[in-house]
Amino acid sequence: MKITTNSGVRPNPELLAPAGSPACALAAFEAGADAIYAGLAKFNARERGENFTPERMSQIIAHAHRLGRKVYLTLNTLVKESELPEVAETLAMLEETGPDALLVQDLGIIRMAREYFPKLVLHASTQMGFHNSAGLEVAEKLGVTRVVLERQMTLEEIAAVRRSTKLELEVFVHGALCASLSGACLFSSYLGGYSGNRGKCKQPCRRRYFGKGGNGFFFSPQDLCTIELLPQLRELGIESLKIEGRLKQPDYVKQTVGAYRMLLDAPPDEFAKRLGEARNMLSKGCGRKWSLGFYTKESGDTLISHDSLGAAGQLCGSVSELRENGFGFTTSKRLFLGDRVRVQPQSGDEGPALTVTRMFVDNEPARKALPGQRVLVLCDKPVAPGGLVFKIGESFADYSKELAALPPPREKLNLALKLTASKIEIELTNAPFPHWERALSLQAASSRPVTAETLEKEFAAADSEQFALGSFRCEIDGGYFLPASELKSLRRAFWDEVKSVLRPGSTFRESAVGLEKFRRAYLEMKPAYTLPEHLTETVAMKPNGAEPGNRKAIRACGVFDFNKLSNEAILPEFCPEEKLESVRRAVRNAAASGIRRFRITSLYALALLEKYRGNEIIASPPLPVCNSMAALELSRFGVTRATAHLELEKESVEALRDKSVLPVELYRYGRPVLLITRARIPAEGELRDARGNGFVIRFDKRSGLTRLYPQKIHSVPRLAGVYDYYDLQNAHWNSQETGTFNYDGSWF
């Protein structure tokens, strides 16, 4: 495949590794990762992982910076209205902790960070669904510096986006794939309230499903492995290559990072020779069958196979014996104490994972088992009879000593430095420390004048167990020559005085100012609109759908499908670059025909509607609006109404309604989309899972997308103070089989 770019020789992109635990962070750095991404216990899309305490995160950030590496903190879940004060506290704490960037999904978090905690650098998560140049325009206006692109883009589409923006771009190169676009999936949430958008995904896509044409794992993609595409990705000018796996163990992180590091650093003439070695290293990570994901059109067509097991790892055998304290099987792979295994029920439901700490071969205690030997593994977890035993990880190094040796977090001092020809002045902006200055006699530099970067690097060397450099502001009123020896002497004198005067614990949080501003602003927030006495409902319909009885309603249709009866045009949720102009043209045609209401389902649409801000613009699923800060941010782009996110329970919808500056709409009736994918799904029509839950899967030829719907129609009662939205695009009136999704329950 040939990708055209404007580049010359490209430097290596950043290699970004997952760190679901402190041990994984050390393994990643040891293997050569340039950066890691990791999360705290809350507001993190991998809450099932070990994750980090704030104290341990501070230690890892300091350790990374000593190595010249970076740490990106994942604050990438959707948040409810009731959680906004806690999010503000978290943002204030992180502004002091100093990660190199925050990875975010929720528009409300973006708003809060940008307005009240401006020191935080923001990266847009792949869950925000940016996939075309119009979306990148919106991302830039949001204030993010990097975008993690939609994972279902081809290399050609990435190349087109790369040419359209100066924002940093990040793409996934290895690991498990989500079946749904952007990971914006309601599948797990529908089957019990465990939202993937909240870090609680139960992975129903990995289960077996049953249809008229047979059964299989219809939604379980193969894993991504792009080692052979690394030269093309480098040539595209992508800034960061991301490895998935925050639920993985250190062995996976070390082996995977090591393989990609070796290939990225390989001279061009040795790249091909090292591919085999890299494949061998990656095979020890015990993933699913590899694929090129969606990077080529052909790979997207073969990404899912109905007979591909949903579990990851190397298949070792099936459970043939159950005991109170363990299970027995005949292994087809070598197995060692310390290896990780998962016992997967053949239904495809998630099975228990465990570390092999005790095992017997031929009734004798053993440290290893060879292929063909009968093994008894001791465990205290319930195991399904006939379950498939997968090896999901090898025994890994113990990083407990290295973690214990990390120095405790140091207090960060924020410096404001001013340099003139006659003196240097330093103020500490977050500590009670007297004004510090020294007289100088500097000459104009004939070449290489001292820079702010040089000064920051020098003063970062605090030589203190209690204090470290935090933020650094610098003002230089000319171009001066400052000898390195004199600069070092100034640095030592400054830090010696700090250590002699300043006591540990005397710093104050500058972020407290932003936190207080948020609290005051939030208390004052209230709806800025007055609802009419009689609220006209909106009904979304197919072009030739039957009218909803005698109801007085706004009729909504797709932007390509409107007719003389239409009042509202719905923009598509996914629009690859090659189709962007056709959607732009359809918007113009709709406006010219008298349409004054537009419904957006993805953020890219905000750019297309820039010139139509005088019209009504409604944010609607799958674009999630969960809190008043997200609504406030959308209002900045001309949005006039927001549909409450489908996963919100009634209490959270009411809280959003009572705070939102935008009128709120409720998805009251219809068959909501649980999953959208560009992958070819080897099934269509009605499906059921092992528990009897019914689903409908449909392929849309025009868009090339496959959508999964629940069999039951979503139906909830009217709620005072909100508009009603009825979705009849894939449903009909008076259905006898209905449900309420999470509305009457809770959202985990």
TrEMBL record:
<dbReference type="InterPro" id="IPR051454">
    <property type="entry name" value="RNA/ubiquinone_mod_enzymes"/>
</dbReference>
<dbReference type="InterPro" id="IPR001539">
    <property type="entry name" value="Peptidase_U32"/>
</dbReference>
<dbReference type="Pfam" id="PF01136">
    <property type="entry name" value="Peptidase_U32"/>
</dbReference>
<dbReference type="InterPro" id="IPR020988">
    <property type="entry name" value="Pept_U32_collagenase"/>
</dbReference>
<protein>
    <submittedName>
        <fullName>U32 family peptidase</fullName>
    </submittedName>
</protein>
<feature type="domain" description="Peptidase U32 collagenase">
    <location>
        <begin position="400"/>
        <end position="498"/>
    </location>
</feature>
<dbReference type="Pfam" id="PF12392">
    <property type="entry name" value="DUF3656"/>
</dbReference>
